[in-house]
Amino acid sequence: MTAVVNELKTGRALVDAELFRSIAHFVHLHFKHPQGRAEAITDQALAFVATAATASVGMMPSDDVDDGLHAFILHTAAYANFCQKFAGRFLHHNPEPGAGCRTVEHVTKSVHAIKAAGFLVLDDLWTVNGENTAQCDADCGRPYGQQ
């Protein structure tokens, strides 16, 4: 029997270390997340944007990942360059108006898309009102046999 190693991509690997540290520091400082959690949030936000560039579903981040997304967008030049590299265009942030628009269904679809794109998903960051959206059946929505 041959062991198969599945290496999942990380959002962190998509940017240089200096930019990653800057975004994570912003998440830590302005959104008051502990440093380690801020780094995890930043990783997931980068994976979210890279996936959104080509996703066939509407993408919606969790509350935690949205903090990282906002921190990244505020690094305007780096965000614009990232969008150009991964999407070939600028990816606009289009928040839903009003409270309560983030749903388990929409965030779960985003998590499935991120996993299908080959990214590591940190389950505890993908919740809506305390409900985990990253846990799923059927091999996380991936077609059977895909790595």
Write a structural description:
By secondary structure, the chain is mainly α. It has one domain (12-91, 100-139). The chain is built from five helices and two strands. The protein has a two-stranded antiparallel sheet with strand order 1-2. A hairpin with a 2-residue loop joins strand 1 and strand 2 (131-132). Helix 1 packs across helix 3 and helix 2 (35-52) packs across helix 3. The longest helix has 18 residues, at 35-52. The two termini are 17 Å apart. The model is unreliable at 137-147 (pLDDT under 50).
Features:
disordered C terminus; 5 helices; 147 residues; 3% strand; mainly alpha; globular; two-stranded antiparallel sheet; single chain
Give the distance, in angstroms, between the N- and C-terminal Cα atoms.
17 Å
Q: Largest sheet, described in full?
A: 2 strands, antiparallel
Question: What portion of residues is helical?
Answer: 40-55%
User: So how many helices?
Assistant: 5
Number of strands: 2
Mean pLDDT: 87
Helix/strand/pairing category = mainly alpha
Strand order within the widest beta sheet: 1-2
Stretches where pLDDT is under 50 for at least 5 consecutive residues are 137-147
Note the overall shape: globular
Strand content: under 5%
In short:
This protein has 147 residues and is mostly helical.
How is the secondary structure organized here?
Elements: H1 17-31, H2 35-52, H3 63-73, H4 76-87, H5 104-116, E1 127-128, E2 131-132
Antiparallel strand pairs: 1-2
